[in-house]
Write a structure and sequence with these properties.
With about 600 residues, the protein is of the alpha/beta class. The chain has four domains: about 230 residues, Aldolase class I (TIM Barrel, Alpha-Beta Barrel); about 130 residues, no CATH class; about 80 residues, Thrombin, subunit H, CATH 2.40.10.170; about 90 residues, 2-Layer Sandwich (Enolase-like, domain 1), CATH 3.30.390. It contains 14 helices and 30 strands. Strand 28 and strand 29 form a beta hairpin. The protein is globular, with a radius of gyration of 28 Å.
């Protein structure tokens, strides 16, 4: 039976608990350093708390150590990795091959930043003992099928959230504008800024547009196909997102994934428990730059949002009438006072909020640019956000109880849905029950009160019914369920990958040939351990990683499956009207665009 995993982001302990309670089968979280989200860091002690909470439900915890390392950081990185292992994480997500050389006793996941974009590369990581490959976000379903056909390694794929316009790990755009590097966890997101598109004559073709800002990913309608393609982990992006976003999106994908699992007899979810929420999840009602499926069906147009990189949210309707008293939309809506709304005027995003609703008339805080025909979007739904924030969210595991009366003792045993057991016994004399039906009813009522525990009583069996004070039964129930919780934690099994730890006697038996004999500055070798790793795997020329260099001048800073030419209808394969070289210009910065039509990629040079 193949296990499927819904993988959720965790900014901190509270967000991790929210994700787990809403149904995540695994969470990924950053430690103090060396994670690709510099603003989402956690103390090892807090990650240990996350692991303890998660493991009670069979939920896994993955620590993100997915930045490049410099030589002077190697020992600190190793110490942090060992501390995370001791804290109870289940795997490390890594980009730098120095971690492989450290011979750590834990499963390693090849980050999407290792450019898991071809069967050859993913097969290499499999042969080198990685437990999982995290696929590049721009892959199509056909690409994934080819990778699955060539490999047996676990495959993780993004299903929801922001998309990097560059191939992961192959972006140095931030580094070209400042000391901040995406490969070091400090991306300044220059891809979300405005640029002019100019030709080689200096003429401006498109002025002041967000030409590299692609819309967010939403593959919620394609989960069944992804299961059939062999994906085992379905990843939600967003370690910088708030708790409302995480609650909403995790709850939505839990429902959708459960429906797909119910239709199949060869897959099951990888953790246990049932999540109860008090709101109806809706992806359009929390942060979104507009939903799209990117290149899942193959390369296509209309994946970018030239007007704004910000969250526009859900489309509400067009303005049908507008005057000083407010606006009237062309359709029914549920806008409410306090909602945030936005619209595009002259190519720029304008935001305001709703200050009143009277019948079909909506009063806004500002009306700059509001006119008939303008499309209105809601980027903050006050009532929905309050419902999510105030919702009681709980995850429970079903248990069966067996209460046994024998001589001068009473034993209660709890068996959960996985077969794990916990029990407690009290020495107590008991008497015969005068009214068996009422006595049994009272016992069942008392035993069914699981309270704030992680358990939900499913069935109760009583042997040799006797009379005993309800206070004794209540204490016995509490002790039994507490012992079951302890038992679940002590029985938790870390699924170490068979090749994740290679001792000194056979370490070098595990070798594979890297798919290329040459590594360029864009291949991110920034320390001597990574250099040794690739040399031992047959690489003959290893350039110093671009992050080690003082400047990116003259170098490729983006390799992307997204193409501006294709996006604006000027693909070189389709007889374009736009001829000659093209450039992106912002202030004094000028980037040259190169179009590799054979690979169907766009490359940007500083």
């Amino acid at each position: 039976m193949r296990k499927l995993e819904l993988l959720a982001p965790a900014k901190d302990y509270d967000t991790a608990v929210d994700a787990i309670d809403c149904g995540a089968d695994a969470v990924y979280i950053g430690a103090g350093k060396f994670g690709a989200r510099h603003s989402a860091t956690n103390a090892v002690e807090d990650i240990a708390r996350v692991a303890e909470y998660a493991h009670r439900y069979g939920v896994k915890v993955y620590a993100t150590l997915n930045t490049l390392l410099f030589d002077h950081e190697l020992e600190e990185a190793r110490e942090q990795a060992l501390a995370l292992i001791k804290a109870g994480v289940d795997a490390l997500i890594v980009q730098d091959m120095a971690y492989w050389k450290m011979n750590l006793p834990i499963a390693l996941h090849a980050s999407t930043q290792t450019n898991c974009a071809s069967p050859e590369r993913v097969k290499f990581f499999e042969e080198m003992g990685f437990a999982r490959a995290i696929l590049e976000r721009s892959l199509s379903k056909n690409d994934i099928a080819e990778i699955r056909k060539a490999t047996n390694i676990e495959l993780e794929a993004f299903v929801h959230g922001a998309i990097c316009v560059s191939q992961s790990g192959r972006c140095f755009f931030s580094r070209s504008t400042s000391e901040r590097s995406g490969n070091r966890g400090e991306c300044s997101q220059p891809c979300r800024l405005e640029y002019d598109l100019c030709n080689d004559k200096g003429e401006t073709i498109i002025k002041s547009k967000h030409l590299l800002s692609v819309r967010d990913l939403d593959l919620s309608a394609r989960l069944g196909e992804m299961i059939d393609l062999g994906i085992c982990s379905f990843k939600i992006e967003g370690r910088l997102k708030d708790r409302t976003y995480v609650r909403n999106i995790v709850s939505l994908y839990r429902q959708l994934l459960d429906r797909e699992i119910a239709c199949r007899n060869d897959v099951e979810r990888s953790s246990v428990g049932r999540s109860t929420i008090e709101f109806e999840p809706n992806a359009s009602r929390t942060f979104t730059r507009g939903a799209g499926e990117y290149f899942f069906d193959g390369k296509c147009r209309d994946v970018a949002s030239f007007d704004t990189p910000k969250a526009m949210g859900e489309r509400i309707g067009k303005v049908a009438r507008a005057d000083r008293r407010g606006i009237v939309l062309d359709r029914k809506h549920d806008l409410a006072t306090g909602d945030g709304v936005c619209f595009i005027v002259d190519g720029s995003l304008v935001g305001t909020n709703v200050v009143g609703v009277e019948g079909d008339r909506v009063q806004l805080n500002r009306y700059d640019g509001v006119a008939v025909g303008v499309e209105l979007f809601r980027n903050y739904n006050r009532l929905f956000s309050q419902a999510v924030e105030r919702s009681r969210v709980k995850r429970t595991i079903a248990v069966d109880l067996n209460l046994k009366f024998e001589q001068d003792k009473i034993t209660l045993t709890a068996t959960d849905e996985t077969g794990c057991e916990g029990s407690a016994m009290v020495e107590h004399a008991f008497e015969a029950v005068r009214d068996a039906a009422k006595g049994e009813e009272a016992l069942r009522r008392q035993l069914s009160r699981s309270g704030d525990t992680m358990f939900e009583v499913r069935d109760i069996a009583i042997e040799n019914l006797g009379f005993v004070p309800m206070s004794v039964v209540g204490e016995l129930r509490r002790e039994t369920l507490n012992n079951l919780e302890i038992s679940r934690l002590s029985d938790y099994e870390f699924e170490l990958h068979s090749a994740s730890f290679i001792d000194s006697t056979n370490r070098w038996e595990r070798k594979a040939q890297y798919p290329s004999k040459v590594l360029t500055p864009q291949d991110n070798v920034t320390n001597h351990l990574a250099r040794e790793f690739y040399a031992e795997c047959g690489v003959e020329e290893i350039a110093e990683g671009l992050d080690c260099r003082p400047s990116t001048a003259g170098e490729q800073v983006i390799i992307s499956d997204y193409c501006i030419r294709r996006e604006i209808g000027e693909c070189l394969k389709e007889r374009p009207r736009l001829k000659g070289d093209l450039y992106l210009v912002r202030g004094t910065k000028k980037y040259r665009l190169c179009f590799d039509c054979k690979a169907c990629q766009m490359k940007i040079s500083d």
